[in-house]
Amino acid sequence: HSVSIYVGSGGREIMPFTLLTVGGEEIQLQDLDAGNTLRDLKQRLEELTGTPTACQCLVHGGSVLPSQDSDPPLESLGVADGARLSLVRTTYPEGKFEFYVKVPSMFLDEEDEDEFDLSERLHLELDGAGRLDLGFRGRYDLGEHAATFSGSIREALGGGRFRAVITRDAFACPSLEADLGDYDRRELASHVGLVVSLGSGAESVSLWVEDFTEVRPFNGGATWHLRRVSEWEHELK
């Protein structure tokens, strides 16, 4: 669904927007000026249309407006008298997605590798209301690493991509949690900015971080590709 937003031809200090809803209803928006920011606009649109800010994708001049995290003034984006924008409504993604790969051993033979199940596995669950939960477990020659995360989608980026923020909840392995060091405690206190990108037909999801982080398993800067599943095929336990 899309909504067209028109900036009126009145004075520059107050910019009268006209919202044309999908049903054809016009809504006058008279309380924004050139000094207001992109976040102000999105919050006002949420009040008027019921579309959460995280599900709003604003297009101006054929380009998607930048992230509201930077929160630029509307005037700096060229949103002034006579400007025309489109609001594309997206829906929150939902479902279970899983990544699993065998990790080769430097010491074990093939039969022992199967017994110890050296591997990396990542679970992502999206609830369709903007919340996401992540679980990771990696088993290696020299030990294992396990953690859980939770967070929420903050913004639609267009093209099936969303920006989310997650926080590490805890280690998923109590025996490891008992031996937390300073490095691990920093991880627990860290927020991670994550891009969630839906694949064709929403049958897969790609995850990557926008900025450098020390939080594992995202500290290597790799992109994780997960496929949709109805039930978990490889448990984290």
UniProtKB/TrEMBL annotation:
InterPro entries: Ubiquitin-like_dom, Ubiquitin-like_domsf. Residues 15-88 form the Ubiquitin-like domain. Gene3D superfamilies: Phosphatidylinositol 3-kinase Catalytic Subunit, Chain A, domain 1. PROSITE patterns: UBIQUITIN_2. It comes from the Eukaryota. Pfam families: ubiquitin. This is Ubiquitin-like domain-containing protein. It comes from Alexandrium monilatum. The lineage of its organism: Eukaryota, Sar, Alveolata, Dinophyceae, Gonyaulacales.
